[in-house]
Each structure stands twice: as C-alpha cells, then as structure tokens.
Design brief:
Elements lengths: L4 E5 L3 H12 L3 E5 L13 E2 L4 H7 L2 H7 L6 E6 L2 E6 L12 E2 L2 H14 L3 E3 L2 E9 L2 E8 L5 E6 L1 E4 L23 E9 L7 E7 L2 E7 L5 E8 H11 L3 H12 L4 H4 L3 E2 L4 E6 L2 E2 L3 E2 L2 E3 L5 E2 L7 H17 L4 H30 L2 H13 L2 H9 L11
Parallel strand pairs: 1-2, 1-11, 2-7, 4-13, 11-20
Antiparallel strand pairs: 3-6, 4-5, 8-9, 9-10, 12-15, 12-16, 12-17, 13-14, 14-15, 18-21, 19-20
Length: 393
C-alpha cells in the first residue's frame, strides 16, 4: 500500500494520532469529526508512562508535559472506610518519566492542531454517512453540519476512529440496542481543592460500580466512574436529584474513605454522562475499513488504559500502512499485533472491574493487599501500565 490518501472518521486521540503519523509519511489525510473542539468528554484522562515515546513521535510531548497534571506514581483501592496503597509499575526504559493526566478538551485539541500543522484537512463538525468501495479505492460521503451540505471525498484507505458510543449506519458504528439493568453508564466531573495526594490514582469500589480519581491540569481532580443502570434508577428514585449528584452521593455513602478527599471541594463543571459502555474485543478490519481506538476494542475504564490503547492502536496500524504492504497483509498483521498488545489488558480489566463492583469481596481481600501491596502493583502491571508497545527511539 503506497503513500496515498486516507480518510479518518473521528478526530479524537486515535484518529488524530493516525492522521499525524500518516501525514509525516507523506500521505494526504482528511479527518471527519462530528463535534467542535475543544470538547469535554467522559474519560479517565490518564495517559500511562508507556505513551511518552509515541507522544515524542507525534510532536506533542513537550506541550503535553507543560499542561498535564503531576506525575502519577502510586495506585490505591478505596473500599468502605479503608485504603490500601501501592507503587505503580514503571516501564522498563531509561526515561524516568511517569504517567500523567490531561483533560480531553486540551489533549484532543493538542493532537488535532498538530495534525492541521502537518497539512491534514479537517471537516468539523461533520460526519461520514457512507463509505463506498470502488475497485482499490473508496468514495466517502461527508455531511457537513449543521447545514447538512454534503461532499464526496476519495480515499485510498479508510480508518474508523469514531469511538464506541456514537450510533450510526456505517458497518463499524454501534447499532441501537435494548437497555438492560446491567448496562454500565459512565460519568465524569472535575473538582477543585480536593485533598488527593498529587501522585496518587486510586480505584474506588462501591456497589454495582467502580470509579477512579487523578489530578490533571490546573490543580483539578478528575473523578470518573461507571455504575449499573439498575442501581442508578433506584438511586434517582430515592434521592430525587440529578444523575451525577445521585451517583456521587452513592459513592460517598458506600466509600467513606473518599469523604475527606472531597470535603470542601468545588465542582468546576457539570457532570458528563455517556454509555452504556461495551467492553470487549471487536474487529480491527471490516469491509475494507481499518478500525482503531475504542471502535476496535475497549477495556473496562477501571484500569484507565482507554487513551493509551487508542493512541497505541493508531501507531500499530499506521506503521503497517506506511510500510507499503497490500491491504490484506496489513489487516492480518495489524489484527495480530492489536490482539497481542491489548487483548491481555482487556481481559485483566474485566476481572478487576467485576471484583471492584463487589465491595464486600474487595473488603475480604483488602488485608492481603495491605500486607502485600505488590499484589496491587501486579494488577496494574497486568492492565498494561508498563507494557511498551512503542519502543523509544
């Protein structure tokens, strides 16, 4: 597959990273993104230390370092009124750098602006409504929003980077599904003046859900969580309040250890919600379209690896596209590399999530974690916190 024209559906971390890497290799690239930036998004907002080599390659490492929150060196589990802490594993490289967090309104803009500097064409806000195969190329119908004008964009390769939550008619997009009580719905908000230690990223265990916290830019603390739909419906009936506030009240009641951390804090923006999330392994290639980010596969957010997997999947694909192999060879090689890199952490995340949603079980195991904190460190290692998909150059 020689340098050509690529259409990328989605301008988030996976899509913009793919665009940057292809543009640097001489490809003509168009991004189609539904939302205007900067935009807030439900997300844990943490990037593990394994991403520093890729951030350097993308040309945003310095800007990310200037904006992001403090280095994250520790993890913890908060359950009931008890806490167990442990060091995070460190990648086996010589950089000495740790993972950090940055709000998506800043990270996504950094990446997209870098893509534009490299000559990437951006259609925003717009959406791709049809992808038609014509011999060895594609004709992609783009609908410009809000006026609904349309245009046709030719492409030699199409990459789906639209995430896993948006509904649509493309073969890679999610189709409507019946709501279930066991569905996991996601929430996120930022707080000022939280008493969270700067280098700590705790996991919060509560009934029918789990959450996480991390310091991001400007002294803010990001709190993100997932909760089962059935539990949320009960909470809203009982509390007569907004969904986000009801979830937070449930977490604080279930997990008193968190109360001193959030006492006296200020909510800096409205709660965001999304979902249901559909963790699991999907297809990396379908009907001639390559798939990256959450559209290819999604880990439970409990391990805070979503952005890392999105960025790294873009690198795995573009490395093979740029090498110039034929489409089927690229598809087989990329699928194999994706599964080797991410399938283990998706399975580990599922096990950790189902454990974290059962606070009684977590409480029973907590003495072991307090006695042997390396067990928590090992869990973070299983989730991919030290797996270098992209090696330093």
């Amino acid at each position: 597959m020689k340098p050509s024209a690529a259409l990328i559906i989605g301008g988030g971390p996976a899509g913009s990273a793919a665009a940057i890497l292809l543009a640097k290799a001489g490809w003509r690239v168009t991004i189609v993104e539904r939302k205007e930036f900067p935009r807030r998004k439900v997300c844990g907002e943490y990037l593990s230390a394994t991403n520093w080599p890729l951030l350097q390659s993308l040309g945003i490492a310095d800007a990310f370092a200037d904006l992001a929150g403090p280095p994250v060196r520790e993890t913890a589990i908060f359950v009931g009124d008890r806490i167990a802490r442990a060091p995070l594993p460190h990648p086996r490289d010589s950089s000495g750098l740790w993972g950090r967090a940055l709000s998506r309104e800043h990270l996504d803009s950094l990446l997209l602006e870098q893509a534009v500097r490299l000559g990437v064409q951006v259609r925003q806000p717009a959406r791709c409504v049809r992808v038609m195969r014509a011999d060895d190329a594609f004709r992609c119908r783009i609908q410009l929003l809000p006026g609904q004008e349309s245009e046709e964009v030719p492409a030699g390769a199409v990459i789906a980077a639209h995430g896993s939550w948006d509904l649509g008619d493309l073969p890679t997009e999610r189709q409507p599904a019946t709501s279930r009580p066991g569905d996991l719905l996601a929430f996120k908000a930022h707080f000022q003046n939280a008493a969270l230690p700067a280098g700590l990223m705790p996991l919060l265990s509560f009934a029918d859900g789990y959450g996480g916290m991390v310091r991001c830019e400007g002294g803010k603390v990001s709190l993100s969580c997932c909760i089962r739909r059935g539990r949320l419906e009960v909470l809203k009936r009982e509390e007569k309040q907004s969904a986000g506030d009801a979830v937070l009240a449930h977490i604080l009641e279930s997990c008193p250890a968190l109360q001193p951390v959030l006492e006296g804090t200020t909510l800096t923006d409205l709660w965001l919600s999304a979902g249901p999330i559909r963790p699991g392994i999907r297809r990396c290639y379908t009907e001639g379209v390559f798939v990256v980010g959450n559209a290819a596969g999604e880990a439970h957010p409990v391990v805070a690896e979503g952005i890392s997997m999105a960025l790294q999947s873009a690198w795995l694909l573009t490395e093979r596209l740029i090498a110039g192999n034929d489409e089927q060879t690229v598809a087989r090689s990329y699928t194999r590399a994706w599964r080797q890199s991410f399938a283990p952490r998706i399975r580990a995340a599922a096990a950790i999530a189902h454990w974290a949603m059962r606070p009684r079980l977590v409480t029973v195991t907590l003495p072991f974690l307090q006695t042997w904190p390396k067990l928590l460190t090992f869990g973070a290692w299983l989730s991919g916190k030290s797996k270098l998909v992209i090696q330093p150059t």
